[in-house]
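Hi team,

Filling in the usual template for the complex we talked about on Friday. All components are listed, including any nucleic acid strands or ligand strings, so the model treats them as one assembly.

SUBMITTER: L.P.
PURPOSE: interface mapping
COMPONENTS: two
RESIDUES: 740
SEQUENCES:
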Amino acid sequence: MKFERKDILGIKDLSVDEINLILETAESFLEISTRKIKKVPTLRGKTVINLFYEASTRTRTSFEIAGKRLSADTINISSSTSSVIKGETLIDTARTLEAMNPDVIVIRHSAAGAPHLLASLVKQSIINAGDGAHEHPTQALLDMMTIKERKGKISGLKVAIIGDIEHSRVARSNIYGLSKMGAHVVVAGPATMMPRNIEQMGVKAFPRVEDAIAGADVVMMLRIQLERQKQNIFPSLREYSQHYCLNRNNIKLAKNDVMVMHPGPINRGVEISPDIADDPSVSVILDQVNKGVAVRMALLYLLTGGSE
Amino acid sequence: MRLLLTGARIIDPAQNIDSRMDIFLEDGKIAKIGENLSKATKSKDSEKITKIVDLTGMILVPGLIDMHTHLREPGFEYKETIASGAAAAAAGGFTSIACMPNTEPINDSRSITEFIRRKATETSLVNVYPIGAVSRNSAGSQLTEFWDLQEAGIVALSDDGKPVMNAALMRRAMEYAFSLQLPVISHCEDINLSANGSMNEGYYSTILGLNGIPGIAEEAMIARDILIAEFTGTSVHIAHVSTAGSVRLIRDAKKRGIKVTAETAPHYFTLTDEALQSYDTNLKVNPPLRSEQDVAAIKEGLADGTIDVIACDHAPHGRTDKEVEFEYAANGISGLETSLALSLNLINSKILTWPELIAKMSTNPARILHLPKGTLETGADADITVIDPLLKWTVDVQAFRSRGKNSPFNGRQIQGKAILTIVGGEIKYDGR
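RESULT (copied from the run log):
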């Protein structure tokens, strides 16, 4: 199969075949990161720009390492959203970058749809590294890869996603991806964190974490954004952690061989108890990070014509 | 100037006229309306030359009135000026427009009102009626001088763009304005419920990851204003109705005899929030495009008379306001030049009859704003719109007279267009 896309803007647009191709390509790249010399010449002479309008350590580093291990020249541009509003528009930045002829632009932005705007303006390939509460496709792909490796399949698994679904791009991309791959996805969180008509996305929503975890093969915890407390979507961290934290007690409701995921960075003791997060028999959090590099290598490779 | 318009189907809801007739205009007034006027007008006073225009196959109606426009001047001339807005109105078939006060400075004083009227007179295209602010600087705390503003020429009051959040202030405004026969136009939005939202809250805001504006943000305020109107015995006009719940509240209030009138805009019966999947900022309006069920309810409300008026909420913007990320983009659609064709669609889809549509675009806004317009009665101002109902055309924003090229309808094939706009007996737009 040839990969025909110019951009990776979201999982919603991807077919099952495309997801499988990306995951298979990523699997073939996993080994490179274990070599003594972790570099192949595949993307030599290609330029990748990481355009980050939102603070990010892991995603930006992961993209940078992915590019470098494939011998692409990677450039990081960090800008705060506040300077965007006052200063140069995204459109002007896009045209400026386009004039320098990069091959791929990776963008993270707090405004949903910003990667789509960029993709409509420039001829280069755009990878969405997270846009507002919309999508985070590379996170969902690395999550699917992690699940597939650990469980041998995705189809037929029950996956529970817990936390602030409304503000989570990770949740949306995973709902699309996992559902397409045949998993049964349920979500849980207080009603104030549940977006309207979420069930139209094909998931079942629960107000209590226990109902979602029951019988789950995979439990994915989402980071709670502390500043959201101001919007009154939860009264206090204390109360949230008492009722929505994954701990030794409620995890017993899941399947015995449950795996626990988290996109990071984790709030220890808020949405996940430290002993779960650090238990390698259930937690795959660091494994997710490892897969992230491979998935991003695969996308850079496929978008620059690697499948031709 | 004498103008004889012959052969058109003349529709005047104010006089219950709907038939093929001629109409004769003289000295800026409607002199005569009837059959075969060509002989009658020739025989006497042969010194004056009468221009005869054959309008066979056309529809002739009292000049259309858009009671909700934003002309941006003073302050935002790069978006629109009174001259460019008036030209857009004429090209869209409107002989009169009312303009909202959210300029810079806000139209909350006699001097700004007089400035707008002077500019409109200089432009000499269509009638421009300023709307004054309810509160000083539209800040929602202190009433403006309604009496003074009325003497300067405002025809209504509104803090449009900003809701009057303080219910006590709204009550006082409605009471004080009622005694002056000044309509209060309410932009209904509870800003705590709509906070940070940039589209309708529903399935599409969920999948697009954009903050939603719930229908109840509009409905709660409509309910409040209806209660104030009922309690004080005053009246209120609800701007840009967009939800099924709003239609229901207004319908029930009217049944109970409360003096409430309402308008909607063409985009609220033409588009749904599903279209926003493109993140096209030209689809960003406030109130936001709603769901399919809401669109169906708006059409029902138009059909059963709950919604009295179609007004396009003409909101022109510059490119810099729209060519940004969706959540940073300005709200609004440049609507004057597409409003008529989009509304004519309601006739083609059998939701409204011709007289019903013309009532909503001329007779009713004239009645609500107490304008001596909206009729073809003998002696009335010769404000006339002639429509070619079959003309198919493609919307091209670059051809807009408006400076605002922000239209989600760009490229759309539509049918029906004003081909003559006559104001005070003079042809101000000729699209033949």
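MY TAKE: Chain B touches chain A at residues 201-203, 205-210, 212, 214, 278-279, 320, 323-328 (CB under 8 Å). The longest strand of chain B covers residues 2-12.

Thanks, L.
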